[in-house]
From TrEMBL:
Tagged with keyword Isomerase: yes
Organism of this sequence: Micromonospora echinaurantiaca
Protein name listed in UniProt: 5-deoxyglucuronate isomerase
GO BP, one annotated term: inositol catabolic process
One example GO MF annotation: glucuronate isomerase activity
């Protein structure tokens, strides 16, 4: 896979009513998907979830979500760089209506179990400061396996201060196995959705994403990304995600795979895994955390 195949610029996968739509069929895999919806003031969309469980994650704006007779009020946020947001969970085989204004991400995964629609409060989102020095970043684990129950879907947000690297050291999760050294790896498809501080969808400052493979499974991606861009990771080592100096970088990770248990198990590129040990002698970037839960949540 080349950069041109894995990097999806904003607008390239639009299919009304979605400003961005990546289905498993479109990506050439089986489980993970992502949609982005843009609603004008007092906008509304009713849709069926089909075989997918979904989240409604405000990127910029607020909404009410109606599903299975429930009304879930999302306070949302001004932007991904302004606050940690609340969100809604939608089960498979459901009809949902979103009413509001703004831009909303809908991560998804093919699901076998039908769970109940639920509200995820911003105050309950575990916020992790990971790495140190120029590899410092913030991870909002709002739909990590231990934070929120789903059938297959895993989703987290990462904020990287300008000039820093995240998704580092490079790591992979392309097969279910326990390595000879005891490291556990899971088979996961992954989508990166990006926003860059100061940018608008399809325009503005840039960040960079690297994906590379092995001789047995080659993949070679170095993508210059703007707000609204997507990078697909079907396999291979991914990282770093690079924030240009002066421009904080956000990405939403969507992961799903065939395993019976939800997991984010991965293994580092053995050439670079030593970098984790260097963090013990460095401080976490003092600019972190970049965001916290908002104060108007209901």
């Amino acid at each position: 896979m080349r950069t041109a195949d894995a990097h999806l610029p904003w607008g390239g996968t639009a299919r009304p009513p979605w400003a961005l739509e990546v289905t498993p069929e479109w990506a050439g895999w089986r489980y993970a998907g992502l949609r982005v919806l843009t609603l004008p003031t007092d906008g509304e969309l009713t849709f069926a979830t089909g075989e997918e469980e979904m989240l409604v994650v405000p990127l910029a704006g607020a909404a009410t979500v109606h599903c299975d007779g429930l009304r879930l009020n999302l306070t949302g946020r001004e932007s991904v760089f302004a606050a940690v947001t609340d969100f809604a969970y939608l089960p498979r085989d459901a009809t949902a209506t979103i009413r509001g204004a703004g831009r909303f991400a809908l991560p998804s995964a093919r699901a076998t179990r039908r769970l109940s629609p639920r509200y995820g409060a911003a105050r309950d989102v575990p916020v992790e400061l990971r790495g140190a020095g120029s590899a410092s970043r913030q991870v909002n684990n709002f739909c990590a396996p231990d934070a929120f129950a789903c059938d297959r879907l895993v989703a987290v947000e990462v904020l990287t201060p300008g000039g820093n690297w995240s998704s580092y050291p490079p790591h992979k999760h392309e097969e279910d196995r326990t390595h000879a050294d005891g490291r556990v790896e899971a088979a996961l498809e992954e989508i990166y959705y990006f926003e860059v501080a100061g940018g608008a969808p399809g325009d503005g400052p840039v960040g960079y994403q690297r994906v590379y493979g092995t001789a047995e499974r080659p993949i070679d991606v170095l993508a210059e990304v703007r707000t609204g861009d997507v990078v697909l990771v079907p396999y291979g080592y991914h990282g770093p995600s690079m924030a240009a100096p002066g421009y904080d970088l956000y990405y939403l990770n969507v992961l799903a795979g065939p395993g019976a248990a939800r997991t984010m198990a991965c293994v580092d590129d053995p050439r670079h895994g030593w970098i984790r040990g260097s963090w013990a002698d460095q401080q976490v970037d003092e600019r972190l955390p970049l965001t916290r839960p908002g104060t108007k949540e209901v």
